[in-house]
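Appendix C reproduces, verbatim, an entry submitted by the partner laboratory led by Prof. M.T., so that reviewers can inspect both the input and the predicted structure.
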Amino acid sequence: QVQLVESGGGLVQPGGSLRLSCATSGFLTDPDFYVIGWFRQAPGKEREGVSCISSRDGNEYYEDSVKGRFTIARDNAKNTVYLQMNSLKPDGTAVYYCAARWQGTGQAMCTAQLNIPFWGKGTLVTVSS
């Protein structure tokens, strides 16, 4: 059974940093090809894909507004995926979700958000002074 559990959210001042973690079970140890990533939903807004990465080639996708500030990384030994967020802005306030699916590309998963069967419950990030 696949499980995704996010952690690392909290309150941070504008310009600050946070690192989110997504602990996985029953997934990253599977040799099948998978894609895993981070999504966020701000109050009153639609969910958007922030960053996704594929296991096949390590190709990374980033939403335009976070390029150069956010970094996605995998630690297969720890079955964990991270999202390092630097230079946070108030519009980064949202619930951040970890999600995964079999096959596809990081860009397709993050932009189309289709056929994603595995989701965590989310962790709240608040960027405010």
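The first strand starts at residue 3 and ends at 7. Additional entries are available on request from the coordinating office.
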